[in-house]
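Minutes, project huddle
Topic: does the predicted pose make sense with prephenic acid bound?
PN asked that the exact inputs be recorded in the minutes so nobody has to dig through chat later. Recorded below.
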Amino acid sequence: MAMADSNSVSHSGNALNLESVRDSLIRQEDTIVFSLIERARYPVNSRLYNQTLGLVPGFSRSLVHFIVKETEAIQAKAGRYENPEENPFFPNGLPPSVVPTHKYPQVLHPAAASININEHIWDMYFNQLLPLFVAEGDDGNYASTAASDLNCLQALSRRIHYGKYVAEVKFREAPQDYEPLIRAKDRDALMNLLTFKNVEEMVKKRVAKKATVFGQEVTLGNNSSGNYKIDPLIVSHLYAEWVMPLTKLVEVEYLLRRLD
Ligand SMILES: O=C(O)C(=O)C[C@]1(C(=O)O)C=C[C@@H](O)C=C1
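Predicted holo structure (tokens), as shared on screen:
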């Protein structure tokens, strides 16, 4: 029988420890790599991101902004943001959930809810990452392209904000090491303490390998074309330059609030 994957602490009921939290990060790599492969099906479609075209009557921002905001509103009604692992890109004015509340385990310090770096993730994704891996051109598939963008954004956001759980585990495992640094508000020392260079090297190699495996042309013969749907080097660059540094930023922000 297939087992439900333990993609998240809030669903798995697993003990919270560094291994289980890292397992979740590893599983989330699959989601991120697949979401990028899906987005790469479409060309850049830059009209989607242009604020000045006025594509949506009465809405002054870009079409992608409109689609993300409206999608988040319906997902909020269905309870998505009741899950402490999920953070909206447009938190202001979101409608409340209309479905029965699910009891998510209270793992995090309540201050976790005040940490949302999605503005940063939005900027990184559209201005730095996207131009690296999509083709030039415009095929008019704006709604589908925006849905793909939202999948990428949500997968990246979930992974990066998962730093809250990583930080909670690290704090619980060594409060005597973290507490003095938190009291001294010493960001640099906290950053050093929570950094494992060897783990980061493994993550970079593994995500590049996943991009190679998931993004290869599958044929029935054994002639591999050597073409990948997303360049494995771009995926490891994404992790090295943005995903891991932003996860660590979330970890530091969380720890700084951990004793409040
Ligand atoms: O695995 C950890 O310990 C994490 O904090 C996660 C992570 C990452 O983002 O992948 C971040 C910092 C560490 O240096 C190693 C990896």
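Observations noted during the meeting:
- The chain has a mean pLDDT of 94.
- DSSP finds ten helices and no strands in the chain.
No decisions taken; revisit at the next huddle.
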